[in-house]
Amino acid sequence: MLLLLTIIYLAFISLGLPDAVLGSSWPVISQDLDTTLQFAGLVSIVVTSGTVISSLYATKLIRRFGAGKVVAFSVLMTAVALAGFTLSYHVITLMLLAIPLGLGAGAVDAALNNFVAVHYQSKHMNYLHSFWGVGATAGPLIMATYLTLENGWRYGYATLAVVQFLLVVVLFITLPLWKKALESQSSENEEAESTALLSNREALKVNGVKKQLVLFCCYCSIEAGTGLWAASYLTEVKGVSVSDAAFWTAVYYFGITAGRFLCGMLADKIKEEQLIRVGICTILFGVLTLIAPVPTFINQMALLFIGFGCAPVYPNTIHLTPKRFGKQASQAVISLSMATAYTGITIVPPLIGVALGSISFALFPYLLLIMSVVMFVMSEQLSSMSKDSEMQVQLER
Predict the structure, then answer these.
(1) CATH number of this structure's domain 200-383
(2) Could you report the per-residue pLDDT of 346-381, keeping only the tens digit for each?
(3) Which CATH code is given to the segment(s) 2-183?
């Protein structure tokens, strides 16, 4: 199981590699392909739409083919898409390649999150999402290395494609490990729950699932919205320079990645519910600090607090899913959660931008505050439901 866990970590690094590359390379790509800077938004929407669709269909695919094959073929799709980017000479080609890129990413995300939630301890879920951060950081660094060269963006995508193809080879070679892990679970649980997964429609009827979907929508809207608009808020409202605002946005993402490594180290000592509660309270503290009439440096530090607060929410809520809703429902619930999360990332941050542009950027932290409060309420209600179900089980015994 340790070897399989290492492969899963590598797969999550590869999942993060292309995620932040489009934005960093698009100024060069747009000139090379003679298109506008704004067209990157359309490409991004196509990728996200594919991710949402594959997340929703992940349960059916995994039920039919197994998690190992779904992950292997999904990474293959992303590798082919990235390789295709290097050969693209028209923006429409990029749009078409964005479809398999998104479809592959969504299936990998849903499959690996559920597999780790079912088979591994919570610390591994926190580490898993930390490794996504490693990939998301490494991708732009790889691309930056090549952008100074002629056609450098093509070499950057080619390098990413090679990394993905190498991982594909490893995934196909190690497919028996996934089967062995499932057989081990079946031997411990004669009911073999993995063969009787609920559908998405059935999972939606499970008590508390809709609350988790609202939680994920709020969380991902906060995470993406902060990353997208925090720099603008600091420059427009707090008078911070553009370079300093960009630096503190990077600090925000550092807080998420470092915080998840820290949560991984603490997960054996602190319950997931408590980590989530502390995380959301830290987000609330950070948002209030962003609003407060304090020295500008303190306002900037608020982004670090928000980043640290974001760290435990996503991975630990995912890891609690089998415990809260049962292993039969967990894959569908996680797939729905992924789809809701990506929908929130796609829709809410642009809507925030429209609202802020029409009214005032001073409203930005107040919007974060509202979503944070809703997220806290949903999380506490889910925790309360979990405690009630545990008490009921004890009474029945």
Answers:
(1) 1.20.1250.20
(2) 888 778 878 887 888 889 999 999 999 999 999 999
(3) 1.20.1250.20
